[in-house]
Specification:
two-stranded antiparallel sheet, 5 helices
């Protein structure tokens, strides 16, 4: 966002200070309260330790099938209900960025060279999965529900930086609640179909604030917000062998895109000098709370030996339509007396322009069963959704990464003293980002001047890793 205010009058210069303080305080509040980020826990890490250990491959028939593939919801056997509960914790560690320009004449009233904040939060939450065979004799009609809830807070929301270096997909994308619901049916011959709903919402906010400089009079503020639900459907298909050996399977999932919009209107005023009539400052802003892209997942499994299963999956993600989370000020206006409003000019917000690209993510996993013990491992490679590195205006970062995963599960015939089959699984994950060296072009964001003038200049290294793990308990009733 860019805000420039000029005035030849003393009271207008004082008004500049009030506007800067007002906008700074309000945007810290509203961006923290009203904005989220992109995608979801299932896309980032997978739901449940089995899927996570297999590098996010979603072909497992477990309590989280409502998300991974609703077509896998129908299951065989005497049991009618599967319940899964999981814990997941993943911590990001990014390379430090120091001695770069963080403020310049384009975004502020001064030039500052400093370190960039590296305060990205860990993901720590619990997931619950439920699968219930409603009508076993009617196409094995089965219902599933998957939910995720952060433990340290209900939700952590942050739109991130607009011009400073920002790992845009790692700020708060996995620190919000998530709910997925699906149904599946079985047509025989190993063929199943399913459909699900991915929850989303849009937020509309309106705020009014008036600041008083007279200590005998109170400053006031009012905030009104409404949230409306949205939903994006997804569809799955599943084909497996019918002889009971499960020696092969084919699966596909198509997830339609959804963007949750945030629209905010601010009406503000301040009495800058004595009892002069106040000058009002009004604007609207818009941003995307989060964005989930069009996704197509194609998977297969092959069981060459009774104790060995190989999993393969390729994900297509349509990030070229990505909507950035940064808030954009539109149509700023000032109102008041002619003398007060004279010379006050406020510019609209302007975000850097990036080119986002669609991408393919290959995944491969292995599972070995030795009696009641299952040993799992997986690898995936995720390229960047940014075309090139940010050498011009702006510093959105998304280095490619190698994702290594591993884990195990142990099957018990009883849970405590109950004759309920259960499985306890654990996994670990390590995502290593490819280090990128960014060198900023000479000049400022408008292309004026020469030398190290841009935000992020002269340059820096981007990269790091994510490390974590989790555990899952699944019960069959």
């Amino acid at each position: 966002m860019g805000i420039s205010i000029s005035s030849s009058l003393e009271h207008n210069r004082r008004w500049n200070h009030f506007c800067l303080i007002l906008c700074g305080c309000l945007f810290v509040f509203f961006e923290a309260f009203c904005t989220s980020s992109q995608a979801n826990v299932g896309e980032a890490y997978g739901f449940g330790s089995r899927s996570s250990a297999l590098a996010g491959i979603g072909q497992a028939e477990d309590g989280f099938s409502a998300y991974s593939n609703p077509a896998a919801l129908p299951f065989s056997g005497e049991k009618r209900l599967i319940f899964s509960w999981a814990l997941v914790s993943v911590t990001p560690r990014f390379l430090p960025i120091s001695n770069v320009v963080v403020e310049n004449a384009y975004t502020s009233d001064k030039v500052t060279v400093d370190s960039v904040a590296n305060d990205y939060r860990s993901t720590f939450g619990q997931a619950v999965g439920l699968v219930y065979r409603l009508f076993p004799n009617s196409y094995n009609f089965t219902f599933g529900l998957t939910g995720f809830l952060p433990i340290e807070q209900v939700a952590y929301l942050d739109s991130g930086e607009t011009f400073e270096p920002e790992y845009v997909l790692y700020r708060s994308r996995t620190n919000r609640p998530q709910v997925e619901a699906g149904v599946g049916v079985e047509f025989g011959y190993g063929f199943r179909l399913g459909a699900g709903i991915h929850s989303a919402y849009s937020l509309t906010s309106d705020a009014t604030v008036f600041l008083q400089t007279d200590s005998s009079k109170p400053s006031t503020m009012r905030f009104i917000s409404s949230m409306k639900p949205k939903a994006a459907p997804y569809f799955g298909a599943y084909l497996s062998s019918t002889d009971g050996s499960n020696w092969y399977s084919l699966s596909s999932v198509v997830r339609l895109p959804v963007a949750s919009a945030n629209n905010m209107t601010l009406h503000s005023g301040a009495r800058a000098i004595g009892n002069f009539v106040a000058l009002d400052f009004n604007f609207s802003s818009t941003s995307a709370l989060y964005y989930d892209p069009l996704t197509v997942e194609l998977g297969a499994s092959l069981k060459p030996l009774p104790f060995w299963t190989m999993f393969f999956q390729a994900d297509y993600q349509g990030w070229s339509k990505f909507v950035a989370p940064s808030m954009q000020i539109i149509n700023p206006q000032t109102t008041g007396s002619e003398d007060q409003s004279k010379g006050v000019n406020i510019s609209a917000g302007k975000s850097p322009t990036f080119t986002f690209v669609d991408l393919w993510i290959p995944r491969v996993g292995q599972e070995f069963r030795i009696g009641a013990l299952s040993i799992r491992g997986g690898y995936a490679y995720r390229p960047s959704f940014l075309k090139g590195t940010p050498t011009g205006p702006g510093n959105y970062l998304d280095p490619p990464k190698h994702m290594w995963n591993g884990g195990f599960g142990y099957h018990f015939e009883k849970f405590l003293s109950f004759h309920t089959p259960c499985e306890l699984s654990m996994h670990a994950t390590y995502d290593r980002m490819v280090t990128q060296h960014i060198t900023k072009d000479p000049g400022d964001e408008n292309g004026a001047g020469a030398g190290d003038l841009k935000i992020g200049a002269p340059g820096y290294d981007a990269g790091g890793y994510l490390i974590g793990g989790g555990a899952t308990l699944s019960l069959a009733f």
